[in-house]
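Q: I'm building a small set of examples for a reading group on sequence design. Run inverse folding on the following structure and report the sequence directly after it, with nothing in between.
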């Protein structure tokens, strides 16, 4: 169970703001956000340029992840992957290549513009990405068969969910026993005050909803995961002055985690 304090946040307002921001990330990725987007960010986080060259460049333009985890995921041909919060599709497209025609990828996202972009880019690539299914849905309740996935991935998304325990339980449910959960997300070293955690715009910018590292570990354990590896993504940074002030003060950083379902 999470040990985060109870939140006083209007979740309907939060969802509307999250959708509003990520609609812009899909449709106008070159504008300024609280956070960085695009290929330069992806390369700095560790995405090999030659891998990015294999997928639609417009997907990478809208990349809004916070870490590189494909080396930790070590996807194999034939595996079934679920991408929670697939956005415009960067990690789903890369996973599609790793698992090949015998494997499959399901990308789940709730923002219509992100889904539309990912689907359009997949369609424009002919049959290259036929093994991906981008589905409208919530990461709290992905419509996939229980125990059907080898690996669940998620990049920069779970911090946006008001109840992280529900998301980790859903990931565990989707995975077969021994299946991996691999994520990069924003975490915090110290407890943030309500002026940050209840600020919907800082939440939608991936700061307000960041979990304390110890809460993340407690939640993963409660959902039945055993943690194998954690890795700090020191090259991730926020852009706006307001975001940087909060991140410097409370030790907000990006972390990648590889764990498996016990
Ligand atoms: C920071 S972006 C990351 C997108 C993608 N993983 C990437 O690396 O580019 C967050 C994405 O998560 C989606 N999202 C946020 N909360 C969600 C939820 N509860 N259910 C489904 N999608 C969600 C947003 O629509 C957005 O596309």
């Amino acid at each position: 169970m999470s040990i985060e304090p109870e939140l006083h946040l209007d979740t309907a307002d939060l969802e509307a703001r999250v959708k509003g921001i990520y609609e812009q990330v899909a449709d106008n990725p070159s504008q300024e956000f609280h956070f960085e987007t695009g290929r330069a960010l992806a390369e700095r986080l560790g995405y090999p340029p030659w891998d990015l060259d294999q997928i639609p460049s417009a997907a990478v333009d809208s990349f809004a992840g916070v870490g590189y985890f494909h080396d930790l995921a070590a996807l194999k041909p034939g595996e079934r992957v679920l991408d929670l919060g697939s956005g415009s599709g960067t990690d789903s497209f890369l996973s599609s290549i790793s698992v090949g025609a015998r494997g499959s990828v399901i990308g789940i996202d709730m923002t219509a513009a992100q889904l539309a972009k990912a689907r359009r880019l997949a369609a424009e690539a002919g049959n290259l990405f036929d093994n991906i299914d981008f589905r409208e849905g919530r990461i709290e309740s992905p419509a996939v068969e229980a125990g059907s996935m080898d690996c669940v991935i998620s990049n920069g998304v779970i911090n946006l969910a008001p109840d992280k325990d529900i998301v980790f339980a859903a990931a565990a449910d989707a995975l077969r026993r021994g299946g991996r959960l691999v994520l990069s997300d924003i975490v915090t070293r110290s407890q943030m005050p309500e002026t940050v955690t209840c600020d919907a715009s800082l939440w939608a910018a991936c700061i307000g909803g960041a979990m304390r590292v110890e809460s993340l570990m407690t939640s993963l354990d409660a959902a039945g995961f055993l943690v194998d590896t954690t890795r700090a993504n020191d090259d991730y940074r926020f852009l706006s002055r307001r975001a940087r002030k909060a991140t410097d003060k409370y030790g907000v950083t990006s972390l990648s985690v590889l764990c498996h379902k016990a």
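The mean pLDDT is 93.
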